[in-house]
Design goal:
The protein is mainly α and 155 residues long. The chain has 7 helices and 2 strands, in the order αααααββαα. It has a single domain (27-136), classed as Orthogonal Bundle (Arc Repressor Mutant, subunit A), CATH 1.10.10.
């Protein structure tokens, strides 16, 4: 019997109710692991994973990011970004183009095939998100997104 005198639930329920189950950093990491696994499973039908999907999404959105901007924004090592962009480029989903504002840099632009694939993959990613957040009200979903933006992009 635990020192508190209460009977400890077994399995995941007992662990969920532990001190770690109330730790915000742990909860964020666990939620990330669960959503990442579900997203990767859904995106696999499109030949993508969360990281390559993220790069394709930014290229398809028309923001024309440089590889350095992608690395900073996605919190990836620049060499990881190069490998992901190389793969997307080999699949003719994105193109590197010279940045008109800085001819020494390249920006990433989605091809027509890349935009079409992104549209299909986005539907799959959105369906996963809705499934994972089924227990959350739409209002709480919006609030969660707002809070995560505050954490992800501190001013």
């Amino acid at each position: 019997m635990p020192p508190t005198g209460r009977t400890r639930p077994t399995g995941t329920a007992g662990l969920r109710d532990s001190v770690l189950g109330g730790d915000l950093s742990f909860l964020l990491a666990r939620a990330n692991a669960l959503t990442l696994a579900a997203a990767n499973a859904a995106l696999s039908q499109h030949g993508l994973k969360a990281r390559s999907y993220s790069i394709l999404a930014l290229a398809a959105d028309g923001v024309r990011p440089t590889q350095r901007e992608l690395a900073d924004f996605l919190r990836l090592d620049p060499s990881q970004v190069v490998a992901l962009v190389d793969e997307l480029e080999e699949r003719q989903l994105v193109e590197r183009r010279t940045d008109p504002a800085d001819r020494r840099a390249n920006v990433l632009v989605a091809t027509d095939a890349g935009r079409a694939l992104f549209a299909r993959a986005r539907q799959s990613a959105h369906a996963v998100e809705l499934g994972l957040l089924a227990a959350v009200t739409p209002k709480d979903h919006e609030r969660l997104a707002e809070l995560l933006r505050l954490l992800a992009f501190p001013s």
